[in-house]
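Hey,

The postdoc asked me to send both predictions to you directly instead of through the lab channel. I've kept everything plain text so nothing gets mangled by the mail client. Protein one:
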Amino acid sequence: MPIQKAHAAFGYVLIRNDYADGEVIEATVKSDFAFTTYWAKGAFQNFNVSTGLDWVDFPTGHILRPGDYVGGVFRHTAVGETVVFCHDPALNRNYTPDIDVWSLDAQAQVVLPVGTRLFLCSGSLLIEGRKFDEPVQITIKSEDKIAVAESKCYGLLFR
């Protein structure tokens, strides 16, 4: 079983799921799942138990949104220490905000414009001399800011 922890994200709740390397879970998935699921570290190798066939793997940076799910029974194997964030509308007033993926290579920089709402899922950022370590919500309020990645960063942008 993964280790789970809830995190605040701009008025919503994200659940962080930590899986050990090689951990195997079996999940019954419905095609109408309303979850948004994001792989921030590690990966899942997937096998469709229902069909007996290998399935598409989920690498770091992969996202599943409502409408992306395929029904069936699946076996997921964590490759490396794996961190998956999940937004469940049932925990969030039955609402799913617009969520986009975000990443930045180590030592790269980017301008974060006013209004940015970034949930940093993995990595470490410097924004105007202030260090932000995962997991953390970052809001750019008054003026555009330059962010520099100390390590490879993965996150979610809330619109």
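Protein two:
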Amino acid sequence: MDKQLGLYNWLRQDEILGYIINAHAGVEPAPTNPAVMRRVFLWEDSGEIKMGNTEAFILHLGSRFEREVKTHDASDLHKLLRDLGESITPHQRHSRPKADSPACGRFKQPEPDEWVVSRSKSETQKD
């Protein structure tokens, strides 16, 4: 893989983009706030089928395709999916904030969250 490409362009390469599209499992409510939806992905790792949020998946992509990534790089993956037409929530028109309204809060990066969905037969026979 060409490590000189910016992350967004790296994600758009055919092999990686196909892997992302195949792994994208949709959206689900966030465990800490069911009113907030989050993207989830499915992937295989060491004989286990895992599911996780975008932050966990971007770390998996880095490991699988040998590229150094950090959890904050998940924003490029979110942008890519939006550019492909995938939207978590319908777009709403925004009005200008009132002069006396409180300032917006700061974005808090979610922690990587992954869990095992199933194990391969050879892994389950070891247990």
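Summary for protein two, as requested: The helical segments are 7-11, 14-23, 54-64, 74-83, 121-126.

Thanks,
C.
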